[in-house]
Design a protein that fits this description.
Number of strands: 19
Strand content: over 45%
Number of helices: 4
Number of domains: 1
Order of helices and strands: EEEEEHEEEEEEHEEEEEEHEEH
Radius of gyration: 18 Å
Structural class: mainly beta
Shape: globular
Strand order of the largest sheet: 5-6-3-10-13-8
Largest sheet: 6 strands, antiparallel
């Protein structure tokens, strides 16, 4: 399997497959494909796992695209302006945890499942949801990023506090918590919401420069009320 990321504003990843190779994505995730690719829709991983995906913001069913000839091409696009990150799971033996909405597509050898935060308060208060997802396996997985991706390598004990909507993902070695902003005036006048995500190293963290949910909210706030 080879791939190329095309475009800048709303990029796509175009994957070239040999006969028998495959990619899977959420339903509706494919942008274009060449001749020689078959599609199969199913509840990948079983009904219980697919229900878990529903709670994490992904589709219940997944589409698997399999090449029937060498050199078949298929492309998957981001849903908003941003970027695409490719992660080789063979280099992440312990897996990679990511937020809902970040998954774009992956090879069948990559397993995506629901991952619960260790502290209930982290999800209950965190805004982006109590349920995260975790990728494991040995193939390639692609994430879509709102805006630009920023990769941080946290040292042991190093802390990074991030607006929850700007977190793309992190290695399982990174501790994930949510803390309330201190100060009555900061909460009601600061414009940053009530909570921040606290990430403590060691491990890799990927954040995104844009939180499209906040951006969409600002646009809606400018629309006429009537």
């Amino acid at each position: 399997m080879n791939y190329e990321i095309l475009g800048k504003t709303v990029p796509v990843v175009e994957v070239t497959l040999n006969k028998g190779e495959a990619m899977y994505s959420q339903t509706g995730g494919m942008s274009w494909q060449s001749e020689g690719i078959s599609m199969k829709t199913n509840a990948k991983g079983g009904i219980l796992r697919s229900i878990g995906r529903m709670f994490s913001g992904e589709s219940i069913f997944m589409n698997t695209y399999t090449a029937e000839t060498d050199g078949a091409k298929i492309a998957f696009a981001t849903t908003v302006p941003g970027d695409i990150i490719a992660l080789d799971m063979a280099k992440h033996k312990d897996g990679f945890i990511f937020q809902k909405g970040a998954f774009l597509c992956a090879e069948p050898s990559v397993e995506v499942k629901v991952s619960f935060t260790k502290k209930f308060s982290a999800g209950f208060l965190g805004g982006e949801g109590f349920i995260l997802q975790q990728a494991t396996g040995s193939g390639k997985i692609f994430f879509e990023v709102d805006g630009d991706p920023i990769v941080k390598k946290l040292a042991p004990g190093e802390v990074l506090k991030v607006d929850t909507g700007n977190v793309v993902g992190f290695e399982p070695s990174v501790k994930y918590e949510v803390e309330m902003i201190k100060g009555f005036g900061n909460i009601f006048l600061g414009g940053e919401g009530l909570f921040l995500t606290k990430l403590t190293g060691p491990g890799k963290v990927i954040i995104q420069s844009q939180n499209f949910g906040d951006f969409a909210g600002r646009i809606l706030g400018l629309l006429p009320k009537n």
